[in-house]
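Thread: quick sanity check before group meeting

JM: Hey all, I'm pulling together slides for Thursday and realized we never actually wrote out the predicted structure for the chain we discussed last week. Dropping the sequence here so it's in one place. If anyone has concerns about the input, flag it before I start.
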Amino acid sequence: MLEDKKILVLGLAKSGYHVSKLLASKNEIIVTDKKEQDEKIINELESLGIKFILSETGEELLDESFDLLIKNPGIEPNQPCVKKAQELNIKIVNEMEVAYHYLQDDVFIIGVTGSNGKTTTTTLINDLLKLHNLPVKLGGNIGYPLSEIVNDVKKGDILLLEISDHQLYNLDEFKTNISVLTNLCPTHLDFHGNYENYINVKKKIFNHHTKEDLAYINKQNKDSLEITQDIKSTKIYFNNEENYYNEKGIYIDNKLIIELKDIKIKGTHNYENILVALLVLKNFAFDIEIIKNYLKNFNGVEHRIEIVDSNTKIDFYNDSKATNPTSTLVALKTMDKPTRLILGGMERKQDFNEIKSELKKVCGIYAIGEVTDRVYDFAKENNISCIKCYTLDNAMEYIKKDAQDGEAVLLSPGSASWDQFDKFETRGEEFKKLVEKFFK
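JM (edit): ok, ran it. Output follows.
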């Protein structure tokens, strides 16, 4: 625990807000953000002795008197205040690292990361643990900063955390008992600089592991295998000879657990997520009837190939969570109709060539966001009709004119949303509103 420290919290948002409140009683806390904040929030922080200062970078606030910089996970490593902290040898952490030291000793921690599938996998594990009446607390990248829930986590609880690469970046002493790496592919390269840096950050999910700790690794993912060669965890593989799925069902230890026909959500990516979730569940409880009943009714995660209702003969899918081309490829593989694809968003050096193998299903591309011109060039190179739409609203106007009965419309941008939306959830909600506006 931190006491008598002078701390600069760089970036408010949810993580900065909650970690500041966690530390306020025994430390001097200054919070800075480049955005104006709600007056009620500022008044609350000030009532706790926390000082808020509006600043573009926070660099001018930092000097040798500070003991610690707590960085919002989304702030890039080369941000001026971060670089100054490095020059001054001020330790840089994030709220998850801080909150970890406030956990009671007898808490069992499960961490889930990966380029794709981590939210669905985390959701499956959480729901199934709850259905087995186990004391699980959910947090991390899935919506609840650890510093928000840490005081509710009791001895004997299972703490389940979805952990993004941005959160892993500034973790130091944090350690899990079980770590899941769903897969690896190039993404967030604007943040990390290159793919090697990215995968080395992902490897931190196994930090401080010993043989007593478990690592769940995708046997069919080459990069996952390579970076985990030297970890000290006990390794448990999925997508291997014992734990796998095929056209009939999902198998653990070569035993059929559930048939695919009894699983509501479809797609190989979902079967893979279910497989690893069930492997983790084996450590705690495993009532096959509870599992079967749950999977017969599980609709999947919002914004991940989510079916959007419309009173038409056109199928609409909200896959706004597809923030890299690999996710878009997964979505396209599930399409069984001619598909009009909304593609694009923030420029992050993403390679749209990853989806080439599934372009035969695409009858038109609607390019949006900062990468509109790149998407257009990509489509033309592959002889796919493409319209430069720039915005989601414009794309849906064109689709209203173009889409035919029996087709599918897929928002699977393969790009981050931050050029036009504050988060992918907002982009997905806007898509659903536009479906209702133009097609209901």
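AS: nice. Residues 424-439 form the longest helix (16 residues). The mean pLDDT is 96.
JM: adding both to the slides.
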